[in-house]
Amino acid sequence: MAHLIATQWQPLLMGLWNTILCSIIALIGSMIIGTLFTLLEISQTRILRVIGKVYVEVFRNIPLLVITMAFFLIIPMYIAKINGFTAGTIGLTLYTSAFIAETVRAGINSVEGGQLEGALSNGMTYHQAMRYIILPQAFRVVIPPLGNQFINLVKNSSVLAFVAGFDLMYQGNLIANDTLQTIPTYFIVGIMYLIITLPLSYYMRHLEKKLA
């Protein structure tokens, strides 16, 4: 195993970096998109509620690999040429955003309804009440499930391996095929995933206790 690390550390580190980069981009993007579609789902306008609901149901109920392959194959064919990393990141972002939308919606629903009415009666607009009163409380409630979504996002980033995204799993597959050291390679890959997910898990627990 030491020999494997010594000879293959460069591709492994490149894969680790691409996994971290993909996860950060997808995390930020999915939070923004997920929150946006949450607001559409609870909008006072029926057509916006329908749009939000359709988006969430579609991306929640299609496998991540199918979404990723669709972007990897369809976008270059009809829109613009993109690489596997970009296609995988887009697919992961949209897939995760649907789950985040439902998580945030549950948090908003847990906030006492009278607070929105009170904000409106005090002269706030609906959007101001959501921004300054409801959403801050909702996010405090949903931190634990959001933390789980973020950790799942990191693990789900391995889908890039199927579209030549040069992520950690992709590099692991190449090394295992080239060296025929399957078990040591995937053991190292698993350890490198833990390097990402364990600190995130402990931080989310700390944040949950701090905000409790």
Task: Write a structural description.
The chain has 212 residues and is an all-alpha fold. Helices cover 84% and strands 0% of the residues. It is built from 9 helices and no strands. Helix 4 packs antiparallel against helix 7. The protein starts with a helix and ends with a helix.
Q: Helix proportion of residues, in percent?
A: over 70%
Q: Report strand %.
A: under 5%
Radius of gyration (CA) equals 20 Å
- The secondary structure category is mainly alpha
Q: Tally the beta strands.
A: 0
Distance between the termini: 43 Å
Shape summary = flat
Look at the structure and give the mean pLDDT: 89
Instruction: Give the helices and strands as they follow along the chain.
Output: HHHHHHHHH
The main sheet comes to: none
| Number of contiguous helices | 9
Uncertain runs are none
Domain ABC transmembrane type-1: 16-204
Main location: membrane
Subcellular location: Cell membrane
Transmembrane segments: 16-40, 61-79, 183-203
Topology:
Layout (H helix, E strand, L loop, with lengths): L1 H40 L4 H15 L3 H15 L5 H27 L2 H9 L4 H16 L1 H14 L11 H12 L2 H30 L1
Helix pairs in contact: 1-2, 1-4, 1-8, 1-9, 2-4, 3-4, 4-6, 4-7, 5-6, 7-9, 8-9
Family: Belongs to the binding-protein-dependent transport system permease family.
Subcellular location: Cell membrane
InterPro entries: AA_ABC_transptr_permease_3TM, ArtM/GltK/GlnP/TcyL/YhdX-like, MetI-like, MetI-like_sf
